[in-house]
Design a protein that fits this description.
Layout (H helix, E strand, L loop, with lengths): L1 E5 L6 H4 L1 H22 L3 E4 L12 H17 L3 E5 L15 H5 L6 E4 L3 E5 L2 E6 L7 H10 L4 E5 L27 E5 L5 E2 L3 E3 L16 E6 L5 E5 L5 E7 L15 E8 L3 H13 L4 E5 L18 H11 L6 H18 L1
Parallel strand pairs: 1-2, 2-3, 3-4, 6-7, 7-8, 8-10, 13-14, 14-15
Antiparallel strand pairs: 1-11, 5-6, 9-10, 11-12
Length: about 350
């Protein structure tokens, strides 16, 4: 039996941005639903953070999610297993009040898991593990020790895996707790990362600048072979353009319509030609355009900021190479959190 695994969809993200929901919909219309139909998939496992805000949801975002996702799955006769993640649990110390349970009760094809549960996927016994918190940690760890399921799927915070391209998680549970399983799949971290047995599958699409050019999508999982196949999302939201006296007349801007673009200036000898280049980008209806002509971290003999790096990469490498009497991992984590919050305000 083949099932689809998807995670961290974050419906309502970026303050319920229409731009991002249109971008999400292109993935669902052109990639997700056609793949389900072509491969005869009748089961979807959603590994958490289906909605973006644990405190509430905009009514238009809920309407969008139902019309463009849940109604379609219901009409197709697709069974959905939904695991509670940290973004869908209202309280931080319990999963009992959660968005997916409260918002999706009208769907008979959707089952919500707020506690660790053994489930049969075809003939495969699988342990579903929702977000682990103060209330359920003891019972969850006991069930992990007790279960005979060869496969686990959940929303886990484990050490040693990539949160994004720049940051590796240095706290959370140790992955050795899951050594008994043949395969472990998880949501929570948005970039793909694995150690050969535990697989973070990543979310379906770019949400922030630190996601740029990071492969996204969903996966098809075979319950008999325990193998998974990525179905990549070909669509992007964020683009870096490197300007080096680029000829505006021959530069093709069609790809950037309704996209968020950053122009990084490497060489600019003719201001008028540069302005025409920028005007051409604007005329292609980019959603947002920023020009970067210098880096806020000044280069010196000891540190060089490479223009191919994004902002968060530069900041993290600057901390790593600096001589400070602090725990660098904590400083990098704080920088990442502040950067993420800043992105969400845009």
């Amino acid at each position: 039996m083949k099932v689809a695994i998807i995670t961290d969809q974050h419906f309502g993200a970026r303050k319920n941005s229409k731009l991002f929901h249109d971008y999400f919909l292109k993935f669902y219309n052109d990639v997700f639903f056609p793949t389900l139909e072509e491969q005869g998939i009748t089961t979807v496992v959603d590994m958490g953070d289906t909605f973006d805000s644990r405190k509430g949801i905009d009514f238009s975002a809920l309407s969008w999610a139902k019309s463009n996702y849940y109604d379609r799955l219901n009409e197709m006769g697709v069974k959905v297993h939904t695991i509670v993640g940290n973004h869908t649990a209202y309280y931080k110390n319990t999963n009992q009040v959660n968005a997916v349970d409260l918002l999706l009760r009208e769907y008979d094809n959707v089952t919500v898991y707020s506690e660790s549960t053994e489930v049969m996927l075809g003939k495969l016994p699988t342990l579903f593990i929702p977000w682990i918190n103060q209330e359920n940690e003891e019972s969850t760890l006991k069930l992990i020790q007790k279960t005979t399921c060869p496969c686990a799927m959940g929303h886990l915070e484990l050490q040693g895996f990539r949160v994004n391209k720049q940051i590796v998680m240095d706290h959370g549970l140790e992955s050795k707790l899951f050594d008994k399983f043949t395969r472990v799949y998880s949501g929570h971290y948005h970039t793909r990362s694995d150690n050969g047995a535990v697989f973070y599958l990543g979310n379906p699409y770019e949400l922030y600048w630190n996601d740029v050019k990071d492969t996204r999508g969903f996966h098809i999982f075979d319950t008999e072979t325990l193998e998974h196949t990525p179905i990549n999302n070909p669509y992007r939201m964020f683009y870096n353009i490197y300007y080096e006296d680029t000829n505006y007349q021959t530069f093709d801007t069609r790809e950037y319509q309704n996209k968020i673009v950053r122009v990084i200036v490497r060489k600019k000898t003719d201001i008028k030609k540069f302005e025409k280049f920028i005007d051409k980008l604007y005329s292609s209806n980019v959603s947002e355009l920023k020009v970067v002509e210098n880096f806020q971290i000044r280069e010196n003999e000891e540190f060089e900021a490479f223009e191919s790096e994004d902002t968060l990469s530069i900041l993290n490498r600057y901390v790593e190479e600096s001589e400070i009497g602090l725990d660098k991992s904590i400083v990098q984590k704080l920088i990442s959190e502040v950067y993420q919050e800043a992105c969400e305000l845009v």
